[in-house]
Amino acid sequence: MKALPNILTSLRLILALFMFVALATAAGGAPWLSERLTMEDQFALQRWAFWAFVIAATTDWFDGWLARKFDAVTVWGAILDPIGDKVLVCGAILGLMSLGPQPMVFLPAGLILFREFTVSALREVGAGKGVKLPVTLLAKWKTALQLTALGAELLVASWGAFGLPMTPETLGPVTLVAHGLFWLAAVVTVITGAQYWEQTRKALAE
Predict the structure, then answer these.
(1) Would you say 22 and 48 are in contact if contact means Cβ atoms under 8 Å apart?
(2) Which of 36, 122, 136, 176 is 20 to 30 A from 25, alpha carbon to alpha carbon?
(3) Cα dihedral sign, 81-97-136-126
(4) In the prediction, which pLDDT does 2 show?
(5) What is the DSSP letter of 38?
(6) Which of 86, 98, 99, 199 is nearest to 159 (CA)?
(7) What is the pLDDT of residues 146-166, one digit of tens each?
(8) What residues contact residue 142 under an 8 Å CB cut-off, 6+ apart?
(9) What percent of the residues of the chain are helix, what percent strand, and what percent coil, each to the nearest 5?
(10) Count of domains in the chain?
């Protein structure tokens, strides 16, 4: 049982890769394959990608809970977990962008990507100088908010693939909620990025 948390984290990485490839292929990003797909094939890929994301996002909670419950916190798990989160978030954003123009979410998407890569660089530079950046409570909520918002955005982008009614009365409110969550996630993401930046600056100054 102690190996289960790391297995779930590894599964998250695999599902994130599958999700991105499925979305990119459905959007025509694989010419040698996409041109052979029917509309129903493209819709099926979008549905599989959405459920892969949902399952992967769920493992983000379970792997940490299991690690604490069975006292199975390992160095390898501590390394893989944040990598899995970032790969899943970045893969979902890039996959979402591949589905077509996203005028309402391209800016928050860019902010989230910029923050994730910047903080990763800060951690790498800080580690080389003996500076550690512990994960804050707000950063944990940030990840949960990102995953919830991205799940909502992927559902909206794949709305037709699920055969759901495309009427403004149905799709409009869901789209509004999804965009609102995504913008909120971007704001919290930027705030946590600024906090990590300030922590690193102070630590290096000392």
Answers:
(1) yes
(2) 176
(3) positive
(4) 63
(5) -
(6) 99
(7) 999 999 999 999 999 999 888
(8) 185, 188, 189, 192
(9) 80, 0, 20
(10) 1
Enter the tokens of residue 149.
Answer: 């918002």
Structure tokens, 105: 């979410």
CATH of the domain at 152: 1.20.120
What pLDDT does 73 receive?
A: 66
Q: 174-182: long-range contacts (C-beta < 8 A, 24 or more apart)?
A: 177/152, 178/149, 178/152, 178/153, 179/104, 179/105, 179/153, 181/145, 181/148, 181/149, 181/152, 182/105, 182/108, 182/109, 182/149, 182/150, 182/152, 182/153
Secondary structure element (H or E) that encloses residue 70, with its range: none
Boundaries of domain holding 173: 4-205
User: What is the rounded CA–CA span in Å between residue 87 and residue 20?
Assistant: 10
**CA 195 to centroid of chain Cα atoms:** 20
Residue 130 has a pLDDT of 74
Six token digits for residue 165: 């009614």
